[in-house]
Write a structure and sequence with these properties.
Helix content is 47%, strand content 16%. Strand 2 (14-19), helix 1 (30-45) and strand 3 (51-55) form a beta-alpha-beta unit. It is of the alpha/beta class and 257 residues long. It has a 6-stranded mixed beta sheet with strand order 1-2-3-5-7-10, with helices on both faces. The protein is globular. It has helices spanning 30-45, 67-70, 75-81, 86-91, 108-115, 142-150, 152-161, 167-173, 185-197, 201-216, 219-232, 237-247; strands at 6-11, 14-19, 51-55, 60-62, 97-101, 104-106, 118-122, 126-128, 165-166, 178-180. It has a single domain (6-182, 210-214), classed as 2-enoyl-CoA Hydratase, Chain A, domain 1 (Alpha-Beta Complex), CATH 3.90.226. Residues 24-25, 27, 63-68, 104, 106-108, 111, 130-131, 134, 138-140, 142 line the site of acetoacetyl-coenzyme A (CAA).
Length: 257
Protein backbone atom coordinates (compact mmCIF):
# COMPACT_ATOMS: atom_id res chain seq x y z
CA UNK A 1 0.00 0.00 0.00
CA UNK A 2 1.29 3.50 -0.87
CA UNK A 3 0.70 6.22 1.65
CA UNK A 4 0.60 9.97 1.16
CA UNK A 5 1.16 11.21 4.70
CA UNK A 6 3.04 8.46 6.51
CA UNK A 7 6.14 6.32 5.92
CA UNK A 8 6.37 2.73 7.07
CA UNK A 9 9.27 0.35 7.50
CA UNK A 10 10.11 -2.76 9.45
CA UNK A 11 13.18 -3.31 11.61
CA UNK A 12 13.30 -7.02 12.42
CA UNK A 13 10.11 -7.65 14.45
CA UNK A 14 9.28 -3.96 14.88
CA UNK A 15 6.85 -2.13 12.59
CA UNK A 16 7.65 1.58 12.36
CA UNK A 17 5.23 4.28 11.25
CA UNK A 18 6.45 7.86 10.74
CA UNK A 19 3.96 10.70 10.42
CA UNK A 20 5.15 12.64 7.41
CA UNK A 21 3.70 16.14 7.13
CA UNK A 22 6.78 17.99 8.39
CA UNK A 23 5.76 21.44 7.08
CA UNK A 24 2.49 21.24 8.99
CA UNK A 25 4.24 19.85 12.10
CA UNK A 26 2.55 16.51 11.39
CA UNK A 27 -0.92 17.96 12.07
CA UNK A 28 -3.35 15.06 12.11
CA UNK A 29 -5.82 15.51 9.28
CA UNK A 30 -8.38 12.78 8.43
CA UNK A 31 -6.10 11.21 5.82
CA UNK A 32 -3.16 10.93 8.25
CA UNK A 33 -5.37 9.20 10.80
CA UNK A 34 -6.85 6.90 8.16
CA UNK A 35 -3.40 5.92 6.89
CA UNK A 36 -2.07 5.47 10.42
CA UNK A 37 -4.98 3.17 11.30
CA UNK A 38 -4.51 1.12 8.11
CA UNK A 39 -0.73 0.77 8.64
CA UNK A 40 -1.07 -0.26 12.27
CA UNK A 41 -3.82 -2.75 11.42
CA UNK A 42 -1.57 -4.23 8.75
CA UNK A 43 1.32 -4.63 11.20
CA UNK A 44 -1.13 -6.06 13.74
CA UNK A 45 -2.09 -8.82 11.30
CA UNK A 46 1.53 -9.59 10.33
CA UNK A 47 2.89 -12.52 12.39
CA UNK A 48 6.44 -11.28 11.65
CA UNK A 49 5.79 -8.13 13.71
CA UNK A 50 5.66 -8.17 17.51
CA UNK A 51 5.51 -4.50 18.45
CA UNK A 52 5.12 -1.14 16.71
CA UNK A 53 6.60 2.33 16.97
CA UNK A 54 4.78 5.51 15.97
CA UNK A 55 6.86 8.63 15.53
CA UNK A 56 6.97 12.04 13.85
CA UNK A 57 10.19 13.94 13.29
CA UNK A 58 12.60 15.85 15.52
CA UNK A 59 10.62 19.11 15.41
CA UNK A 60 7.20 17.62 16.06
CA UNK A 61 5.62 14.33 16.98
CA UNK A 62 2.35 16.03 16.01
CA UNK A 63 1.05 19.55 16.73
CA UNK A 64 -2.54 18.36 17.06
CA UNK A 65 -5.59 17.75 14.94
CA UNK A 66 -5.51 19.75 11.70
CA UNK A 67 -7.00 23.11 12.69
CA UNK A 68 -7.38 24.21 9.04
CA UNK A 69 -9.44 21.12 8.23
CA UNK A 70 -11.99 21.78 10.97
CA UNK A 71 -11.93 25.57 11.48
CA UNK A 72 -15.11 26.27 9.49
CA UNK A 73 -17.05 23.15 10.44
CA UNK A 74 -20.41 23.23 12.19
CA UNK A 75 -21.34 20.84 14.98
CA UNK A 76 -23.51 18.87 12.56
CA UNK A 77 -20.60 18.51 10.11
CA UNK A 78 -18.23 17.46 12.91
CA UNK A 79 -20.74 14.84 14.10
CA UNK A 80 -21.33 13.61 10.53
CA UNK A 81 -17.61 13.37 9.76
CA UNK A 82 -16.98 11.83 13.19
CA UNK A 83 -13.26 11.83 12.39
CA UNK A 84 -12.39 10.90 15.95
CA UNK A 85 -14.20 7.56 15.55
CA UNK A 86 -11.12 6.50 13.56
CA UNK A 87 -9.19 6.69 16.81
CA UNK A 88 -11.24 3.75 18.14
CA UNK A 89 -9.44 1.61 15.54
CA UNK A 90 -6.12 2.45 17.20
CA UNK A 91 -7.47 1.20 20.50
CA UNK A 92 -8.34 -2.12 18.89
CA UNK A 93 -4.70 -2.79 17.87
CA UNK A 94 -3.65 -5.86 19.83
CA UNK A 95 0.12 -5.56 19.71
CA UNK A 96 1.85 -2.93 21.85
CA UNK A 97 2.62 0.48 20.36
CA UNK A 98 5.52 2.66 21.52
CA UNK A 99 5.32 6.39 20.76
CA UNK A 100 8.72 7.95 20.01
CA UNK A 101 8.19 11.64 20.75
CA UNK A 102 10.39 14.62 19.93
CA UNK A 103 9.45 18.30 19.81
CA UNK A 104 5.80 19.38 19.84
CA UNK A 105 3.37 16.78 21.13
CA UNK A 106 0.20 18.83 21.35
CA UNK A 107 -3.56 18.45 21.34
CA UNK A 108 -4.48 15.45 19.19
CA UNK A 109 -0.75 14.67 19.01
CA UNK A 110 -0.58 14.25 22.77
CA UNK A 111 -3.82 12.27 22.66
CA UNK A 112 -2.24 10.00 20.06
CA UNK A 113 0.89 9.53 22.18
CA UNK A 114 -1.13 8.75 25.31
CA UNK A 115 -3.29 6.30 23.34
CA UNK A 116 -0.07 4.35 22.65
CA UNK A 117 1.12 1.91 25.30
CA UNK A 118 4.54 3.35 26.09
CA UNK A 119 6.25 6.67 25.36
CA UNK A 120 9.95 7.28 24.77
CA UNK A 121 10.61 11.03 24.74
CA UNK A 122 13.53 13.07 23.53
CA UNK A 123 14.80 15.82 25.86
CA UNK A 124 13.25 18.34 23.46
CA UNK A 125 9.71 16.97 23.71
CA UNK A 126 6.94 19.34 24.84
CA UNK A 127 3.56 17.95 25.81
CA UNK A 128 0.39 20.00 25.93
CA UNK A 129 -3.35 20.26 25.35
CA UNK A 130 -3.66 23.81 23.98
CA UNK A 131 -7.20 23.40 22.58
CA UNK A 132 -8.45 25.94 25.14
CA UNK A 133 -6.59 28.61 23.15
CA UNK A 134 -8.74 27.76 20.13
CA UNK A 135 -11.99 28.05 22.07
CA UNK A 136 -12.48 24.29 22.24
CA UNK A 137 -11.31 21.42 24.42
CA UNK A 138 -9.56 18.08 23.85
CA UNK A 139 -11.78 15.75 21.84
CA UNK A 140 -9.81 12.54 21.33
CA UNK A 141 -9.40 11.31 24.89
CA UNK A 142 -7.22 14.11 26.30
CA UNK A 143 -9.38 14.82 29.32
CA UNK A 144 -9.50 11.10 30.12
CA UNK A 145 -6.18 9.40 29.28
CA UNK A 146 -3.99 12.36 30.24
CA UNK A 147 -5.81 12.72 33.58
CA UNK A 148 -5.39 9.03 34.35
CA UNK A 149 -1.68 9.28 33.48
CA UNK A 150 -0.66 12.51 35.25
CA UNK A 151 -3.43 13.04 37.82
CA UNK A 152 -6.04 15.75 38.21
CA UNK A 153 -3.86 18.68 39.29
CA UNK A 154 -1.52 18.70 36.32
CA UNK A 155 -4.22 17.65 33.84
CA UNK A 156 -6.38 20.60 34.92
CA UNK A 157 -3.50 23.02 34.40
CA UNK A 158 -2.71 21.61 30.97
CA UNK A 159 -6.31 21.41 29.79
CA UNK A 160 -7.70 24.60 31.37
CA UNK A 161 -4.66 26.80 30.95
CA UNK A 162 -2.90 25.26 27.94
CA UNK A 163 0.35 24.75 29.84
CA UNK A 164 3.08 22.81 28.01
CA UNK A 165 5.22 20.48 30.08
CA UNK A 166 8.82 19.46 29.40
CA UNK A 167 9.99 15.92 28.86
CA UNK A 168 11.42 15.80 32.40
CA UNK A 169 8.15 17.00 33.90
CA UNK A 170 6.32 14.39 31.84
CA UNK A 171 8.66 11.73 33.20
CA UNK A 172 8.11 12.84 36.79
CA UNK A 173 4.34 12.93 36.22
CA UNK A 174 4.32 9.37 34.84
CA UNK A 175 3.29 10.36 31.31
CA UNK A 176 6.40 8.93 29.63
CA UNK A 177 8.60 5.89 30.23
CA UNK A 178 11.99 7.45 29.61
CA UNK A 179 13.71 10.61 28.39
CA UNK A 180 16.80 10.36 26.20
CA UNK A 181 18.89 12.73 24.04
CA UNK A 182 17.24 13.75 20.79
CA UNK A 183 19.92 11.97 18.73
CA UNK A 184 18.82 8.57 20.03
CA UNK A 185 15.11 8.82 20.90
CA UNK A 186 13.95 6.84 17.88
CA UNK A 187 16.63 4.16 18.27
CA UNK A 188 15.73 3.83 21.96
CA UNK A 189 12.05 3.43 21.10
CA UNK A 190 12.82 0.82 18.45
CA UNK A 191 15.11 -1.00 20.90
CA UNK A 192 12.38 -1.06 23.56
CA UNK A 193 9.84 -2.23 20.98
CA UNK A 194 12.30 -4.90 19.82
CA UNK A 195 12.67 -6.22 23.36
CA UNK A 196 8.89 -6.48 23.74
CA UNK A 197 8.60 -8.03 20.26
CA UNK A 198 10.99 -10.80 21.30
CA UNK A 199 8.67 -11.93 24.11
CA UNK A 200 5.89 -14.53 24.04
CA UNK A 201 3.37 -12.98 21.61
CA UNK A 202 0.15 -14.23 23.17
CA UNK A 203 1.23 -13.31 26.69
CA UNK A 204 2.20 -9.81 25.46
CA UNK A 205 -1.16 -9.41 23.74
CA UNK A 206 -3.24 -10.36 26.77
CA UNK A 207 -0.97 -8.45 29.15
CA UNK A 208 -1.38 -5.25 27.10
CA UNK A 209 -5.14 -5.71 27.14
CA UNK A 210 -5.14 -6.34 30.89
CA UNK A 211 -3.07 -3.24 31.73
CA UNK A 212 -5.26 -1.07 29.50
CA UNK A 213 -8.33 -2.53 31.22
CA UNK A 214 -7.03 -1.04 34.46
CA UNK A 215 -8.02 2.34 33.03
CA UNK A 216 -11.16 1.34 31.24
CA UNK A 217 -13.06 -0.81 33.73
CA UNK A 218 -13.95 -0.98 37.38
CA UNK A 219 -11.28 -2.64 39.49
CA UNK A 220 -13.24 -5.85 40.12
CA UNK A 221 -13.95 -6.34 36.39
CA UNK A 222 -10.33 -5.60 35.48
CA UNK A 223 -9.03 -8.07 38.06
CA UNK A 224 -11.48 -10.76 36.84
CA UNK A 225 -10.47 -10.20 33.20
CA UNK A 226 -6.80 -10.38 34.14
CA UNK A 227 -7.31 -13.68 35.99
CA UNK A 228 -9.17 -15.22 33.03
CA UNK A 229 -6.41 -14.17 30.61
CA UNK A 230 -3.76 -15.54 32.99
CA UNK A 231 -5.49 -18.94 33.23
CA UNK A 232 -6.10 -18.98 29.46
CA UNK A 233 -2.37 -18.59 28.75
CA UNK A 234 -1.88 -22.05 30.31
CA UNK A 235 -3.35 -23.56 27.14
CA UNK A 236 -0.53 -22.06 25.03
CA UNK A 237 2.68 -23.81 23.98
CA UNK A 238 4.57 -20.66 24.96
CA UNK A 239 3.54 -21.03 28.61
CA UNK A 240 4.82 -24.62 28.67
CA UNK A 241 8.01 -23.59 26.89
CA UNK A 242 8.57 -20.50 29.06
CA UNK A 243 8.22 -22.31 32.38
CA UNK A 244 10.16 -25.39 31.20
CA UNK A 245 12.98 -23.17 29.93
CA UNK A 246 13.14 -21.48 33.34
CA UNK A 247 13.38 -24.86 35.08
CA UNK A 248 16.04 -26.08 32.61
CA UNK A 249 17.95 -22.76 32.93
CA UNK A 250 17.88 -22.02 29.20
CA UNK A 251 16.42 -19.30 26.94
CA UNK A 252 12.81 -19.94 25.82
CA UNK A 253 11.92 -20.19 22.14
CA UNK A 254 8.58 -18.50 21.51
CA UNK A 255 6.20 -19.83 18.85
CA UNK A 256 3.21 -17.57 19.37
CA UNK A 257 1.08 -20.70 19.83
N1 LIG B 1 -3.19 22.23 12.39
C1 LIG B 1 -2.90 22.73 11.18
N2 LIG B 1 -1.74 23.33 10.90
C2 LIG B 1 -0.84 23.44 11.87
C3 LIG B 1 -1.06 22.95 13.16
C4 LIG B 1 -2.30 22.30 13.41
N3 LIG B 1 -2.61 21.76 14.59
N4 LIG B 1 0.02 23.20 13.92
C5 LIG B 1 0.90 23.83 13.12
N5 LIG B 1 0.39 23.99 11.89
C6 LIG B 1 1.02 24.62 10.73
C7 LIG B 1 1.05 26.12 10.89
O1 LIG B 1 -0.17 26.70 10.50
C8 LIG B 1 2.19 26.48 9.96
O2 LIG B 1 1.71 26.43 8.64
P1 LIG B 1 2.09 27.61 7.58
O3 LIG B 1 3.58 27.49 7.43
O4 LIG B 1 1.33 27.24 6.35
O5 LIG B 1 1.68 28.89 8.21
C9 LIG B 1 3.16 25.32 10.13
O6 LIG B 1 2.38 24.24 10.67
C10 LIG B 1 4.29 25.61 11.11
O7 LIG B 1 3.72 26.07 12.32
P2 LIG B 1 4.12 27.49 13.00
O8 LIG B 1 4.59 28.46 11.98
O9 LIG B 1 2.98 27.92 13.87
O10 LIG B 1 5.38 27.02 13.90
P3 LIG B 1 5.89 27.65 15.25
O11 LIG B 1 7.18 26.98 15.55
O12 LIG B 1 5.85 29.14 15.21
O13 LIG B 1 4.81 27.20 16.37
C11 LIG B 1 3.35 25.63 17.49
C12 LIG B 1 4.65 25.86 16.68
C13 LIG B 1 3.46 26.32 18.85
C14 LIG B 1 3.18 24.14 17.67
C15 LIG B 1 2.15 26.25 16.72
O14 LIG B 1 2.18 25.79 15.38
C16 LIG B 1 0.80 25.90 17.28
O15 LIG B 1 0.39 26.48 18.28
N6 LIG B 1 0.09 24.93 16.63
C17 LIG B 1 -1.24 24.55 17.04
C18 LIG B 1 -1.24 23.67 18.27
C19 LIG B 1 -2.65 23.36 18.69
O16 LIG B 1 -3.44 24.23 19.01
N7 LIG B 1 -3.01 22.05 18.69
C20 LIG B 1 -4.34 21.60 19.03
C21 LIG B 1 -5.16 21.37 17.78
S1 LIG B 1 -6.87 21.03 18.10
C22 LIG B 1 -6.92 19.40 18.52
O17 LIG B 1 -5.93 18.69 18.53
C23 LIG B 1 -8.30 18.87 18.87
C24 LIG B 1 -8.38 17.48 19.42
O18 LIG B 1 -8.25 17.25 20.59
C25 LIG B 1 -8.71 16.36 18.55
Amino acid sequence: MTYQFILTETRERVGLVRLNRPKELNALNSMVMEELAVALEEFDRDPGIGCMVVTGDERAFAAGADIKEMAGATTVEMVQRDAIARWDRLKRIKKPIVAAVSGFCLGGGNELATACDLIVASETARFGQPEINLGVMPGAGGTQRLTRAVGKALAMEMVLNGRFITADEALRAGLVNRVVPVEVYLDEAVKLAGEIAARAPLAVRFAKEAVNNAFESFLADGVADERRAFYMLFSTEDQKEGMQAFIEKRKPEWKGK
